[in-house]
Design goal:
The protein is mainly β. Helix content is 0%, strand content 67%. It contains no helices and seven strands. Strands 1, 2, 6 and 7 form a four-stranded antiparallel sheet that branches. Strand 3 and strand 4 form a beta hairpin. It is globular. The relative contact order is 0.33.
């Protein structure tokens, strides 16, 4: 499990997909911009993306794909091309611009 805390998270061209849960409902939310304001707490099974748009990074639980990295306090980080699986997200406030919600059934 990857855990992260932040005061503010900005997501450009966001796509949140969720599989069927209660009664088999599934769907997605697409937005041009999503701003989460804190505290923001995220937990995920796996996070992958590009650090500063260049360096491929995969984080997944206590061991990562490259070298062991102890818990760090990072003041600012930019990831691009991010894919997150198993996301649990808690935030105090969320502003979503140009959102489209699609809900379907299996």
């Amino acid at each position: 499990m990857v855990r992260c805390r932040a005061e503010r998270v900005v997501v450009e061209e966001a796509v949140l997909s969720f599989p069927g849960g209660v009664a088999g409902a599934s769907g997605s939310v697409r937005a041009s911009r999503m701003v989460l304001e804190g505290p923001v707490e995220m937990m995920a099974r796996q996070v992958e993306g590009r650090l500063l748009g260049l360096l491929p990074v995969v984080l997944s639980g206590p061991t990562h794909t490259s070298v062991f990295v102890p818990a760090l306090t990072v003041q600012w980080m930019e990831l691009t091309d991010v894919r997150i699986s198993g996301l649990v997200l808690r935030t105090k406030a969320a502003r979503i611009s140009d959102a489209a919600l699609q809900v379907g059934h299996r």
